[in-house]
Amino acid sequence: MEFVDYYKVMGLEEDASTDEIKRTYRKLARKYHPDVSKEPDSEARFKELGEAYNVLKDADRRREYDELKQYQSSGAGAGGFRPPPGWQSRESINPEDFSGPAGADYSDFFEQIFGSRFRQQGSAHTEQHFDARGQDIHSSLPVSIQDAFNGATVELSLSTPVVHHDGSIRNEQKKLKVKVPAGVTNGQKIRLRGQGGPGVGKGGSGDLYIEIQIREDSRFHLDGKDVSVSVPVTPWEAALGASIDVPTLNGTVKMTVPANARQGQRLRLKGRGLPGKTPGDQYVILSVIVPKAETDEQKKAYQTMSELWSVDPRARDGGIS
Length: 321
What we know:
Elements: H1 6-10, H2 18-32, H3 42-56, H4 59-73, H5 108-114, H6 117-122, E1 137-143, H7 145-150, E2 152-163, E3 169-180, E4 189-192, E5 208-214, E6 220-223, E7 226-233, H8 235-240, E8 242-248, E9 251-257, E10 266-269, E11 282-288, H9 296-308
Parallel strand pairs: 1-5, 7-11
Antiparallel strand pairs: 2-3, 4-5, 6-7, 8-9, 10-11
Helix pairs in contact: 2-3
């Protein structure tokens, strides 16, 4: 009979605290529980964990096991484990306390230590006492920049595990109405409590975390909560200054273009970005559009301009004099 190292089964050091043993078991039991795990060896691993936890969680039981482990380590158990002569467990395990799948086959080592009476009692024990919270699920939701500004209710379709009446768990398509708050930013996560994976026993369902993905917009560019937009202006509007209409996420507003404005100049509309405790700003990028000279009069006007200004646009400083 092989000696079973329960510390290795749970991935623990021999001086692990009782709280550490409990935390580790809850984590691993949820990972390998046959009803929710996708691991190929989940049933066998869950049984091993139940044995290990049942021994190590109890101080007296663990003390007995540590004595046997020390006996094995001394070489007295070489060639296969055998308890010391005359050894008999002082511990009686109640099957109601056993943390494992109902009707499981326990290892020879486990039965040799704690007696075949446990198997006889355990074989009649059919109720499984295991509670685990369901897994959290992560998904993403594309929204428009306008919905991010105003807030909206958007439908999300995703595949989630569903518990059926026969106890089986299968993935099914599910549609949810997600309330997107005004001012949400790209990459921000929305949490929906209880919409994740189903729990086991009395364990509650996990949560659904939805990552917001703001779609690219043909006019507006988003940087955090700040918004930028390119607005065309004529050469005379840029040179003389003007009051122009500018699109924002909250409608059109009037903005003053200062005299002698430059191509690519950024003008700020404070607080016109995404809303929030500290709202973002909107930046208007001026794009100077040069009209075509199609008539003789228009060509003459350009000729007059060329005589009024001596400009070399290829000079390093613009060559304006």
